[in-house]
Write a structure and sequence with these properties.
Elements (H helix, E strand, L loop, with lengths): L8 H13 L22 E5 L12 E5 H7 L15
Antiparallel strand pairs: 1-2
Length: about 90
């Protein structure tokens, strides 16, 4: 695939289809409000389990919060929550 795979009709259609499913964020399980402005940090964005820059494909789309997806970047693993010392 030449160029940036995130630019193009196929990627936009994939994002629209994934958003229409109304699935929660695949990491935390919290709902994503589809009415939020695209610039809002809790709005929907398309994520991939394996980042495209690390060899992932467009065939594994996931729903994510914009804030969480940006913080994750192109890392393969998701940070695990810290265990509280108070238990």
């Amino acid at each position: 695939m030449a160029g940036n795979p995130r630019n193009g009709r196929r990627y936009r259609r994939l994002g629209v289809a994934q958003k229409a499913l109304g699935l929660p964020y695949w990491v935390c399980g919290r709902d994503i409000d589809p009415t939020l402005d695209a610039r809002d940090r809790w709005s929907f964005t398309l994520d991939h389990a394996v980042p495209l820059s690390k060899g992932g494909s467009l065939l594994d789309p996931r729903s994510a919060h914009r804030r969480c997806n940006s913080a994750r970047g192109n890392r393969l693993t998701v940070r695990q929550p810290r265990t509280s010392r108070r238990w």
